[in-house]
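Here is an idea for our session: we take a single protein and study its fold together. To get us started, please write out a protein record for me. Once you have written the record down, we can walk along the chain together.
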Amino acid sequence: MEMSGHIYRCSGGETFDSIALRVYGDEKYAAELMCANPEMVDVAVFCGGEELGLPVVYVPRAAETGGHAPASAPWKE
């Protein structure tokens, strides 16, 4: 898995799903976050302050999905 070099600092109450939604625009990328941070997979809800490495994931553009894609970020390809 290719890592982006970016770190995400968790806030209290966040989950892998909510972070995937915030960072990548869709909860379905939670699995990629978990694979990139195997030491944290036992955490159901973050307390705050934990740091996750952000993997590079392919996020389809709006034209490919027929909907609206989130704004582009440097760790998205």
In short: The mean pLDDT is 86. The chain is about 25% helix and 15% strand. The radius of gyration is 12 Å. The beta strands are 3-9, 51-55.
